Amino acid sequence: MSNQDVVLGRPDGSGACCPGLLTAPLDEDQAVELAKVFKALGDPVRLRLLSMIASRAGGEVCVCDLTPAFDLSQPTISHHLKLLRQAGLIDCERRGTWVYYWLVPEMTDRLASILTRPMGDPLPDRTAPAGAAS
Fold first, then answer.
1. Which among 53, 104, 109, 113 is least surrounded, fewest beta carbons within 10 Å?
2. Which residues partner with 100 through β-bridges?
3. What's the longest Cα–Cα distance across the chain?
């Protein structure tokens, strides 16, 4: 069972995905696992790394091209990349002495679907403050 399957409520590996946040409450296990993904995204260095990997022409980038963009040591960059991998956001392959990284688009697509309001649903009326008398 992969971490991304658990995160998205698919412990059996089926194609079914958990409902979006705006359509049904998450259960405790889904919330815990989803929080791990958002925690990985909650660090500015990891968010920049993900952006650099995702926006790279050709779809992959060598770690040797990522490290110079930061005022951090190589082991620190590797640690951040490891956390992004553990969250299921990126994957990699070693080629000789270098490691190449790429985005896992299925994960970002699933995150987007969890956060997206279903098409056609009306927006709530926000003209009156909550709890105000009509």
1. 109
2. 62, 93
3. 69
Residue 90 has phi, psi (to 5 degrees) of -135, 165
Of 2, 7, 24, whose CA–CA distance to 108 is shortest?
7
**Tell me, what DSSP letter sits at residue 127?**
S
User: Residue 53 and residue 45: Cα distance in Å, rounded?
Assistant: 12
Q: What angle do CA 73, 79, 83 make, to 5 degrees?
A: 150
Closest by Cα among 5, 107, 93 to 50: 107
The predicted-structure confidence for 44-86, as pLDDT tens digits, reads as follows: 999 999 999 999 988 899 999 999 999 999 999 999 999 999 9
Taking the C-alpha atoms of residue 87 and residue 35, their distance in angstroms, rounded to an integer, is: 10
Residue with tokens 């997206």: 116
- Do residues 104 and 88 make contact, with C-beta atoms less than 8 angstroms apart? yes
Cα dihedral across residues 11, 106, 7, 88: positive or negative: positive
CB count within 10 Å of CB 33 equals 21
Q: Residue type for 78, please?
A: S
Cα(104)–Cα(109) distance, integer angstroms = 9
